[in-house]
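Progress report, Aim 2. The chain analyzed during this reporting quarter is listed below.
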Amino acid sequence: MAYQKDNTNDYEEAPFAAGMNFGLEEIEPFLKGLSSSILDSGFSQDEINTIQAEINAIKEDNEEKEIGTFNVIYKGQQTKIRIQAEIHIEDVEKEVVLYMFSIQELVDLIDEEMLKTEDERDI
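Predicted structure tokens for the chain:
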């Protein structure tokens, strides 16, 4: 899913983000998967806990929040992944649209990983 960015950064951030709907319980496994599959060095457990806590703190339906920018290593080079979340609440169920901004090549790979996650849900 393409989501256009609305600000600039100090690195070559792609004009669109990778984005997908997640249940709250899916976020940690997805971030850990990225960290071990396409990144040389990804999200630490503390960073994942912070991301989860920030998302859990969002209480309003359709609320968007800038979660943060995280340093990662991709192909031996330091780069950044900026995460933004949008919450959708139906009854008591909370769903998260997670947007991940980075360099174009990494956004494309994250998008592929998101599609794999979506395909695994359908099995």
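The radius of gyration is 14 Å. Helices lie at 24-37, 45-56, 104-122. These observations will guide the mutagenesis work planned for the next reporting period.
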